[in-house]
Amino acid sequence: MMGNLNREIVWILPYRRPEEIPMSRMGEYITHLATMLGYDTSVHLSRVERGSTRLVAQPKDGKASQAARANIAAIRNGNAPAAARSAYQRIENLLCRDGGAAHLQIGSATVLRFKGRDSDTEPARGLVDTGVVTGNLYSLSAEDSGALKARIRRDGGAGHIRCRAESRFTDKLRQNLFKNVRLRGKGIWKQTAAGEWHCDDLEIVDIWPLQTSTLQLAIESLRNIQADWKDDPLNDWREADKEDGAA
């Protein structure tokens, strides 16, 4: 029995009784919590405790418990999969709208906090979708599981994008380290105050290297093309425009 208690993961919303929360809203919290913990077929809702609202999740075995704890740690460290990070942000947004703050507890230890109404920033407007990003691949590392973590610097130097990839992409990512790349994948996209959408996290499903060249090199390359170049092509084009206008 003690082993089961040690595996329990409790989401606590203080000062709000379960009967004060509409069933539809409670369902949203439970759904996003399940996505955030991952391993959802092996982590069950054990009970809802009264006093404050306490949602008690019970992993069915040690493997599921370790996986859920690893996901919590990854969210806390900022390197969780896109779906888990999106679920965490959605809970934050709900708490902002409901005027609350919450935390996640294992045993007597608080392992993750949700600032909600206490956050200094407005709730992020975001979505999870498939898209393409480009930038410079400047960081690459492997996890114990073999999965890869990478970062690319956005075009224009406006921050970076956290990326994850399966081990099958190891060679391709290594070959393009410190180079400009185009990545396609499922990511978290957030809207700025100016209305622009930027990707923060991406699960990579495809990679393409990008060829970079300076303007001078591009001009030299054009000059090296074997062709019958005019002495003054710009003037020839202007004359051609005049003739077209006269016609």
Describe the fold and architecture:
The chain is α+β, with helices and mostly antiparallel strands. The chain has two domains: 2-116; 126-209, Beta Barrel (OB fold (Dihydrolipoamide Acetyltransferase, E2P)), CATH 2.40.50.140. The protein has helices at 2-7, 23-37, 62-77, 82-98, 170-175, 215-223, 233-246, and strands spanning 9-13, 43-49, 53-59, 102-106, 109-114, 126-142, 148-154, 160-165, 180-191, 197-209. A hairpin with a 5-residue loop joins strand 6 and strand 7 (148-154). Helix 2 runs antiparallel to helix 4 (82-98). The longest helix is centred in the middle third of the chain and has 17 residues, at 82-98. It is elongated and about 85 Å long. 26% of the residues are buried.
Key attributes of the depicted protein:
alpha+beta; OB fold (Dihydrolipoamide Acetyltransferase, E2P); 5-stranded mixed β-barrel; 7 helices; 34% strand
Quick structural overview:
Helix content is 34%, strand content 34%. With 247 residues, the chain is of the alpha+beta class. The chain folds into two domains: 115 residues; 84 residues, OB fold (Dihydrolipoamide Acetyltransferase, E2P).
Helix content: 25-40%
Terminus-to-terminus distance? 94 Å
- Which spans have pLDDT < 50 for at least 5 consecutive residues? 1-5
Structural class by secondary-structure content? alpha+beta
Q: Round the mean pLDDT to the nearest integer and report it.
A: 80
Largest sheet: 5 strands, antiparallel
Q: Which sequence of SSEs, written as H and E, runs from N to C? A: HEHEEHHEEEEEHEEHH
Overall radius of gyration = 26 Å
Number of domains: 2
